[in-house]
Design goal:
Elements lengths: L7 H13 L2 H8 L3 H15 L4 E3 L4 E3 L1 H24 L7 E7 L1 H18 L3 E7 L13 E5 L8 E13 L2 H5 L14 E7 L2 E2 L2 E2 L5 E2 L2 E6 L2 H9 L5 E4 H10 L13 E8 L7 H14 L3
Parallel strand pairs: 3-4, 3-5, 7-11
Antiparallel strand pairs: 1-2, 5-13, 6-12, 6-13, 7-8, 9-10
Length: 295
């Protein structure tokens, strides 16, 4: 059999196609055409004597042989990238990073990324998506996702950067129509603008260890939208305190129970780059961690 080392392009095309979910998406990440990616994968399949994908006009799915091959070849390619980064460790961090940031935290820190990080590391280019959706790092070809709260996705590396204080807030006008809150149980009477994931409202942990499942007429999946709705008086909101602190200082939002501790949630950097993330990923993650630490 011809050596697989002679089919490096096919190996890379195969792994990128698995992670991106289609030949078109893989081609975009590689800077080539879908036809070229498809032909590279076909040559690899001919060399292996096995079909790696089931192809149809509407579906591209791995065969059992493809799944087995991906499990073995993907770590090897990541190891090659890690080895290259190790040899370049004395050089300036360089290369492209595809990053997913939570919407409101992204809005809060983006200016510092532009003003401080990019001038400091001129050889690093960034593609930043800002969404509260839990992106699929492998299939959507992200290098790193910063997420608030824990992650249940297996096979990923995780680093906790900070523990973020939470707050329940509402507009002063909204609270006029409700009696004064004096205990955490009173919060059950408040209508909330709810943060909903896959149709399930995000619960609010209370100091006594119980959880409040908020009630309300408006469900959203973006912290930015929830904050805007709360300022408009639609309902109360459970949000990271840091992103609403300015609204509290300006009187746009108030805390119905300011003395009640609501605990913290972790901010995590999640990546699939094996045990040794690239140097560019390390310096970017360190920069975000420094921002969240207040430096």
């Amino acid at each position: 059999m011809q050596s697989l080392l002679n089919e490096t392009a096919g190996l890379v095309a195969f792994v990128r196609t698995v992670r991106a979910g289609s030949f078109s998406a893989a081609a975009k990440s590689l800077g080539t055409t879908p036809s070229s990616v498809s032909k590279s994968v076909s040559r690899l399949e001919q060399l292996l004597g096995a079909s790696l994908f089931r192809r149809s006009t509407r579906l591209l799915a791995m065969t059992p042989e493809g799944e087995a091959f991906y499990e073995r070849i993907s770590p090897l390619l990541e190891g090659i990238d890690a080895a290259a980064d190790a040899t370049r460790s004395h050089l300036e961090p360089a290369g492209h990073l595809r990053v997913s940031l939570p919407s409101e935290l992204g809005r809060m820190i983006l200016q510092r990324v532009v003003d401080e990080f990019m001038p400091r590391y001129p050889e690093i280019s960034l593609e930043i998506g800002m969404t509260d959706r839990a992106v699929d790092l492998l299939r959507e070809n992200y290098d790193v996702a910063f997420r608030v709260g824990g992650t249940a996705q297996s096979g990923l590396m995780c680093r906790t950067l900070a523990h973020l204080d939470m707050a329940i807030v509402a507009s002063p006008a909204f609270l006029v129509g409700h009696r004064k809150m004096s205990a955490p149980g009173d919060l059950r009477e408040l209508p909330f603008v709810r943060y909903v994931i896959a149709g399930v409202p995000y619960p609010i942990p209370l100091p006594d260890g119980s959880e409040l499942v908020p009630q309300g007429r408006l469900d959203l999946d973006s912290a930015t939208a929830i904050r805007d709705a709360a300022v408009s008086g639609v309902g109360a909101a459970y949000l990271i305190k840091r992103i609403v602190q300015d609204d509290i200082d300006r009187g746009l939002l108030v805390e119905p129970l300011p003395g009640i501790p609501l605990g913290t949630v972790p901010l995590q950097a999640i990546h699939a780059s094996g045990k040794m993330p690239s140097l560019r990923l390390q310096v970017f993650t360190d920069f975000i961690a420094s921002i969240m630490a207040g430096s």
